[in-house]
Amino acid sequence: MLTKTIAKIIYVGLVSLLACNVQGGELAKHVSIYKLIVEPEKYDGQLVMVSGYIGGRNGPSRGLFVRKIDALITNTVNKINFDRSSASEAVFEKCPWSYATIVGYFSVSPAAGKLSLKNIRSVSSFDISNEEQGVKRLPCYHE
Q1: Neighbours of 5 (CB within 10 A)
Q2: Most CB atoms closer than 10 Å: which of 36, 38, 95, 130?
Q3: What letters, b where the CB count within 10 A reaches 16 and e where it falls short, cover 82-119?
Q4: Residue among 119, 121, 113, 133 at smallest CA distance from 24
């Protein structure tokens, strides 16, 4: 089951790459959430496209997680935070608790040990709950 979920996330991420990885003339780098967590310095300050699970609007579950279970148990090791911009607020208002592909600038705050997505350009959520219907994409936010 987990393998199918990961495969679908990768598939949707690749589809998103074709759909929305050019933002304002700048090409977003498609990066796995794992790479951002393991090698954050490599992507600091870059426009990235990343897929994961968006948690809740407030508290420790606010952010992009590797998997749904990470958001539900607030496993902050597998989490990338969002800034508090109006774009981020729109994301949490329109598509909390869902898988999504996000284009935004990745930021590392070494002092706080915090990984963040800032200046979010676009977000598309996707529903992977029903294999027979395929993947449904829903735009959540676009600059």
Answers
A1: 14
A2: 36
A3: bbeeebbeebbeebbebbbbbbbbbbbeeeeeebbbbe
A4: 121
Supply 12's token pair: 């949707």
Helices (H), 21-133: 33-38, 40-43, 68-72, 86-94
Q: List, for residues 67-103, the tens digit of each pLDDT value.
A: 999 999 999 999 999 888 888 888 888 888 889 999 9
What are the φ and ψ backbone dihedral angles of 74, each rounded to 5 degrees? 50, 55
DSSP letter for 143, please.
-
pTM score, two decimals? Answer: 0.75
Q: Which residues pair with residue 98 across a beta bridge?
A: 54
Burial of 68 (0-12, 13-18, 19+ CB in 10 A): middle
What is the Cα–Cα distance from 72 to 107, expressed in whole angstroms? 24
